[in-house]
């Protein structure tokens, strides 16, 4: 099955046959990642008096990781980036993605070529760690200031949007740490609140009305 798709802003994404879901909004993968994870999430912690620790649920294509790496470089902010992925894409699939040309960087494939389960300093400003397991199996090693919560839709994977899941994440989130996600569904908002986050709705990218930002209180 052909997995590669082109979204409305010209950036690529993938389809998951396993979950029958696309990895990004069809209205624009790059636009979505920049709007939610970079601008609403990571940018809100920069400048930072100390290195920023990021956790991403769902490495997927690596687009969020690439954009976080770029921002770490341009702002000279040391970032430690941990991501978990249960069903990695292949290197051949990663090579098909048009992110290097859209973001003017040659660094993209380094994220996919990096080994699993070890801290890899990809630059003086960006240390990368990816874990090949499910979120439910993951034992965290650090506290995070920023969380990119990018699981497939709650209708496809309701088990990843529960109070229990967010309570585990809250336990790893630094005070005032932020979690951002594209889903603004009521069940997601309520589960985040029950886990101890202060949740606010924000304008989404393109035609998407709302996305969520949750602050650990
Ligand atoms: C919406 S996509 C992530 C998109 C990604 N952040 C990107 O920038 O391309 C969701 C990802 O979660 C992964 N996934 C699904 N179930 C998982 C689980 N239980 N634990 C960890 N990863 C999972 C999928 O394989 C997929 O790569």
From TrEMBL:
Residue ranges constituting the MnmC-like methyltransferase domain according to the UniProt record: 134-216
UniProt-recorded Gene Ontology molecular function terms: oxidoreductase activity, acting on the CH-NH group of donors; tRNA (5-methylaminomethyl-2-thiouridylate)(34)-methyltransferase activity
Example GO biological process: methylation
Q: Which Pfam families match?
A: Methyltransf_30
Return the SUPFAM superfamilies for the record: S-adenosyl-L-methionine-dependent methyltransferases
Keywords from UniProt, A to Z, are: Methyltransferase, Transferase
Coiled-coil residue windows: none
Q: Which Gene3D superfamilies match?
A: Vaccinia Virus protein VP39
Q: Which InterPro entries does this UniProt record tie to the protein?
A: MnmC-like_methylTransf, SAM-dependent_MTases_sf, tRNA_MNMC2
Does the record bear Methyltransferase in its keywords? yes
Q: Which NCBIfam families match?
A: tRNA_MNMC2
Q: What is this protein called?
A: tRNA U34 5-methylaminomethyl-2-thiouridine-forming methyltransferase MnmC
């Amino acid at each position: 099955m052909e997995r590669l798709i082109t979204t409305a802003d010209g950036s690529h994404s993938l389809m998951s046959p396993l979950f029958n879901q696309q990895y990004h909004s069809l209205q624009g993968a790059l636009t979505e990642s920049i709007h939610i994870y970079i601008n609403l999430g990571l940018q809100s912690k920069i400048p930072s008096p100390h290195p920023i620790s990021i956790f991403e649920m769902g490495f997927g294509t690596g687009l969020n990781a690439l954009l976080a790496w770029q921002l770490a470089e341009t702002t000279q902010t040391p970032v430690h980036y941990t991501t978990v992925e249960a069903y990695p894409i292949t290197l051949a699939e990663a090579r098909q993605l048009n992110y290097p040309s859209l973001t003017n960087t040659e660094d993209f494939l380094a994220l996919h070529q990096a080994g699993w389960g070890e801290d890899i300093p990809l630059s003086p400003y960006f240390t990368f760690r990816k874990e090949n397991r499910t979120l439910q199996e993951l034992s965290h090693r650090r506290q995070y200031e920023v969380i990119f919560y990018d699981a497939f839709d709650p209708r496809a994977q309701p088990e990843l949007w529960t109070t229990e899941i967010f309570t585990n994440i809250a336990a790893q989130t630094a005070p005032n740490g932020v979690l951002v996600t594209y889903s603004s569904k009521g069940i997601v908002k309520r589960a985040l609140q029950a886990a101890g986050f202060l949740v606010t709705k924000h304008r989404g990218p393109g035609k998407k009305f709302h996305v969520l930002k949750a602050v650990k209180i």
